[in-house]
Each structure stands twice: as structure tokens, then as C-alpha cells.
Amino acid sequence: MALDLSLNYLAMNKRMSNGFTLLELMVTIIVVAILISVGVPGFVRTIQTSRMASSTNDLVTSIHRARSEAVKRRVPVTLCASNNPLAPAPTCNVGGNMAGWVVFVDDADIDGNGQPDGNTVIDPGEIILEAHPALPAQLTVSSDAAYLSFSANGFRRNGPLGPSATMIVFCDDRGNVSQGSSGSAARMLMIPVTGRPQIGRDVADVNFALAQLGGTCP
User: Fold this and answer.
1) Fewer beta carbons within 10 Å, N or C terminal of the chain?
2) If phi over 0 gives left and psi between -120 and 50 gives alpha, with beta otherwise, what is residue 26?
3) CB proximity list for 56: less than 8 A, separation 6 or greater
4) Whole-number Å distance between alpha carbons of 126 and 128
5) SS3 content of the chain, % helix, strand, coil (to 5)
């Protein structure tokens, strides 16, 4: 009797240790594939939305800083596009976009007349307040100027190189499409003469900015 019980136990244990059957394995693979196909696109969209919001907010924060420093220091402060913002001596990219930027005190007295020149380019001796590296390659940035400058009263000002930026659009490969309650996948910034940046999240807002810029998204 003891031997029979031992044999039965071994047979049962063997059956339990055989693992998944082929059918069970196939069902498991199908379920996992379905979960991945449903979950991965949503996860990717979450990453894209987070990247877009973070990049837009970074530029808005820098604009606010440039404006507040101009008021505090009572001299022009400029934010300009830069291809080398983290270099020891960064330069402004006159024909560039705002993918990377520098905020600096635009107060060098180049003319020797005792007044800050406010020429919207980084001159020797001017203080660099902030340098932002290039935004992620997945984003494209369009603007109507490569710089944004503020006067001592905090208002947007134009320099000798042309008008200051008034419209900036951020896009990724999703384009200007609705994302439901969060608005468009793209973002636009409008900088009125008062200097306070305004974020547009609606598809219509982005379309308006693109029309002004003569651009597309992406």
C-alpha cells in the first residue's frame, strides 16, 4: 500500500512539473501580444505629451526670467536662439529657431555713449543668465524671429536686427491634431507687446500661429 501511494504521488508530481502545454503557451503569447498592442501606443503618446509640455514650459520659464531680469536690472535683456548655448562663449544664431537658447544681459556699451546697446547679440563682457541645451530631436520649433528681447519696463522690444519674436510653435510627428481634453498635440506661444507669454493648446490656436509663420506642423 505504501509503495502504491508513493508511485501515485510521483506520477502526480511529474504531471504538475511539466509546465505549460503548447495550447496554454500559445494563449499566453496571444494575450501578451494584445496587451502590448494596446498599451505601447498609449505609453508612447504619454511620453510625447510629457516631452512637449516640458519643452514648452522650459521656454516659457526662460522668457519669464528674461523679462523679470530686464525690469530688475533696468536694462535690455535678450533671449536668443543658439547653436552652441553651452559653449564657454555662446553665440546667437541669427537665422535659427528656438531649439536651443541663451538669456543674457544685453547692456554692452559698444558705441561708448554710456548707454546699453541692446543689439540682441552676445557681446564680450555681457552676463549670461541662462543657457538651455537643444530640445529633443523629436521636436521641431518654428518662430518668426530668432530672438526675443525685453526693455526695462518689461515690454517686448525690437532690436537692430529686426522685429522680436511674437509667435513660436512646437510640433512633433503627431502634427497639429486633437488629443481630446488636453487640446492639440502641438503647442504655440504668443508674446504680445506687454511681454507676457501666452500658451495656446487648441488646434485653432496652432493653426493661427502657423498661418502667421507660413509654416506647417511638423
Assistant:
1) N
2) alpha
3) 170, 187, 189, 199
4) 7
5) 35, 20, 45
Please list, in sequence order, all residues whose beta carbon lies within 8 angstroms of the beta carbon of residue 114, skipping any fewer than 6 positions away.
none
The H or E element that residue 35 is part of is helix 22-73
The CA distance from 212 to 26, in Å, is 55
| Per-residue model confidence as pLDDT tens digits over 75-129 | 999 999 999 999 999 999 988 788 899 999 999 987 778 889 899 999 999 999 9
Residue spans of the domains in the chain: they are 21-213
List Cβ neighbours of 58 (8 Å cut-off, separation of 6 or more).
132, 135
Do residues 94 and 82 lie in contact, with contact meaning Cβ atoms separated by under 8 Å?
no
CA distances from 76 to 30, 71, 81, 94 (A): 63, 8, 16, 18
- How many angstroms separate the CA atoms of 30 and 28, rounded? 5
Fold (topology level) of 21-213: minor pseudopilin epsh fold (3.55.40)
Three-class SS of residue 170? strand
3-class SS of residue 204: helix
Q: Which residues pair with 169 in a beta bridge?
A: 142, 188
3-47 pLDDT, tens per residue? 454 545 545 555 445 556 777 777 777 766 665 665 556 778 889
